[in-house]
Structures are given as structure tokens and as C-alpha cells.
Design brief:
The structure holds 2 protein chains of 2 kinds.
Chain A lengths: L4 E3 L2 E4 L5 E6 L6 E7 L5 E8 L2 E5 L7 E4 L6 E5 L8 E8 L9 E2 L3 E5 L1
Parallel strand pairs in A: 2-11
Antiparallel strand pairs in A: 1-3, 3-8, 4-5, 4-9, 5-6, 7-8, 9-10, 9-11
Chain B lengths: L3 E3 L4 E4 L4 E7 L6 E7 L6 E7 L2 E5 L2 E6 L4 E6 L8 E8 L5 E3 L3 E6 L1
Parallel strand pairs in B: 2-11
Antiparallel strand pairs in B: 1-3, 3-8, 4-5, 4-9, 6-7, 7-8, 9-10, 9-11
The chains are: A mainly beta, B mainly beta.
Chain lengths: 115, 110
Amino acid sequence: EPEVTQTPSHQVTQMGQEVILRCVPISNHLYFYWYRQILGQKVEFLVSFYNNEISEKSEIFDDQFSVERPDGSNFTLKIRSTKLEDSAMYFCASSARQEPNYGYTFGSGTRLTVV
Amino acid sequence: QKEVEQDPGPLSVPEGAIVSLNCTYSNSAFQYFMWYRQYSRKGPELLMYTYSSGNKEDGRFTAQVDKSSKYISLFIRDSQPSDSATYLCAMRAAGNKLTFGGGTRVLVKP
């Protein structure tokens, strides 16, 4: 069964450093998403991406965050200057179409720890 | 009032019992309702999707939506130890964004 692949599975970074979280969505999917889950809290929407541009973003997704699809297969989330409160699981997801019955497929996540 | 509320549990049931999960919501713009299962240290996995009010059945799973009460449910029949996980409800209005509940931890004891 096709999978969304995320690397690394765990990243530790120092406060103020830049991190790039990487995702390989399912190959025929067109819509891409990042969500995050702070320990013990809800899964929260960060951003959606379609046709090489952001289609929707949350208030969490401020100027410190950016997304990119640098080639035909990868989808990345960059955090420019990490803060302690950025520590969370970051999930990438993709879907074939926008209609909600085409369920999103989530990756297994990257655990980001900011120290 | 939180946009989506879900009892965190844990909900402990014996194997073979019916598991009953629910969420309430406040945003009347939500049109699409989903249930995800999340195992520890894994991403959410879509179980059920429903649109508008009504019931939907898929194997051992039944999802119900009551838009008039802003209440959705998931029932798992003949529960198995492998059903032990966290169950997340999620909802969507017209855009792309999914709004999740906090999840209910379910433990099915053999």
C-alpha cells in the first residue's frame, strides 16, 4: 500500500537553529499538508499546498515557517529559527484530490525536539 | 467553547465488547466528518468518512453524524486487542483544513 515517508524520524536541534523536515508524498497525490502535534495536545493544521503554492495556512504558520516542493517527489517544511515551543511531532499528509472522501494519508511523523 | 471536544478516556473494554466513541462540535460550518485511528508514535490513519447527517457502516465500524445536535459517534463491534489505539475525530468545512478532537485512548483487554 502506498505510504507517505517522512525523514528523519527524530531530530534534535538547538534553539535558534534552522531545521528542514522532509516528506515524500504518495506519487500521484496533488495536495500536500503539514500538521503538528505537541505532546499531549491535539493534532493541529499548519498548511496546505497545491500547484506549487500555499492554499491555506493557520495562524501557527508564521514567518518562521516555509514549505517547498523542490522537485517532483519531496515536500519540505522549514523552520527558520526554532523555539522551544516548536518541539512537537510534525506530520506530513497528502491526498489525491480535494474532496474529503479522498482521505488524507499521513506519514509516521518527525519528532522534533528543540533544546 | 472548544471547536471540537472529545473525551480523552482512557476507555477500557473487554475483548468482544462494543466500543462507543463520540465528539461534539460547535462550528456549524463543518460538513465532512472523519474518524482516524492513531497508534503510538504513528500518524493518524483514516477509518471512516461521512458527509452530513446519517449512518455509515464499514465492517465492524459504524459512524453516525447528527448535525442538528452537533454530535458524531463511532462504534466498533466485536472489539479486538488490536483495536487498542487512540481514536481521533476530525472535521472539515469548505476548505482543506482538518480540525481534530483531542483523541480518546481505547484499551481492549483480552
